[in-house]
Design a protein that fits this description.
By secondary structure, this protein is α/β, with parallel strands linked by helices. The protein contains eight helices and eleven strands. Strands 1, 2, 3, 4, 5, 6, 7, 10 and 11 form a nine-stranded mixed sheet that branches. A two-stranded antiparallel ribbon has the order 8-9. Strand 2 (32-37), helix 2 and strand 3 form a beta-alpha-beta unit. Helix 5 (180-197) packs parallel to helix 7 and helix 6 (203-220) runs antiparallel to helix 7 (228-251). The longest helix has 24 residues, at 228-251. The termini are far apart. 30% of the residues are buried.
Length: 275
């Protein structure tokens, strides 16, 4: 019989038939798995329905506001864990998590899980994408939700406990950007969405964010010490902020679609005069 964990796992998905089964198998230890499916057009929903507690259809969106808008009423457990289709959980880490989430004397509201981000197949603490712990295992009463991209899930209070690393394998894995094409596609999609949704993001802020990203890769992470892998990761990381700046800049000006249309009309009119 499966040991109770006191945890509900939430995952928002869209067309993830290639990854969703392995993902869900590594979360079968949870008491509940709630899937928010953004009307996938592949086999995602069929696969998820066999492994999840509940699969809910939600509108398509680029961000994760569906989780924010629909979480109420779909969790009966004290702890909420937020994952993605790119997530995998090592069994040894699960044993540690359950030890804390089922302990009535555990006096913390947020659990930081040892975390390993793979970007284009590379994992390193020199990577600009490196984060040592993922703080998305939160008591339901302490959840702080937002529709702002990359900041949807947070918490109130400062009772945070980081699980010590058992070994380098016993972690929550995030397998993102399988190749350059995938990285660029995600960056274009997310930066365009962020530029259109965040009214506080202007050209100046977006520009200086590029230089902060450069500082991260050159001085904080020293990613160049990874050789060409580090160079590639650094360029991929900084590119996100460059693309975001371009979308923010573009949103505040008359774009080529307007100018070129006016130019075509002008030239058409001139040629009409010739006839």
């Amino acid at each position: 019989m499966k040991k109770k964990s006191n945890v509900t796992v939430f995952i928002e998905v869209y067309n993830e038939e290639l990854r969703i089964e392995s993902c869900l198998r590594s979360f079968q230890w949870a008491d509940e798995i709630i899937i928010f499916d953004k009307h996938s057009t592949d086999r995602t929903r069929d696969i998820a329905s066999k492994l999840a507690t509940e699969v809910l259809l939600v509108p398509f969106c680029e961000g994760s506001e569906n989780v924010v808008n629909n979480i109420c009423g779909h969790s009966s457990k004290e702890w909420c864990l937020f994952a993605t289709a790119s997530s995998l959980m090592h069994p040894d880490l699960v044993d540690e998590i359950i030890k804390y989430t089922t302990d009535l004397k555990f006096d913390f509201d947020v659990i930081g899980m040892p975390y390993a981000i793979y970007s284009m197949g590379i994992r390193s603490n020199r990577s600009p994408f490196f984060v040592s712990h993922k703080h998305t295992l939160i008591r339901r009463s302490k959840l702080k939700l937002s529709t702002k991209l990359h900041n949807e899930i947070s918490y109130v209070g400062d009772k945070v406990f980081d699980i010590p690393f058992i070994n380098e394998d016993a972690v929550l894995y995030h397998c993102t950007h399988k190749n350059v094409e995938s990285l660029l596609a995600h960056e274009v999609r997310y930066t365009k969405y962020e530029a259109s949704q965040d009214s506080s993001l202007n050209s100046a802020k977006a520009f200086w964010a590029i230089w902060r990203a450069v500082i991260v890769v050159l001085f904080r992470r020293k990613s160049f010490l990874l050789g060409w892998n580090g160079v590639a990761l650094s360029l991929g990381y900084v590119t996100y902020f460059i693309i975001r700046f371009l979308f923010v800049w573009e949103s505040n000006r008359r774009g080529g679609d307007v100018i070129y249309s006016e130019l075509r009309n002008k030239i058409d009119a001139l040629w009409n005069e010739r006839h």
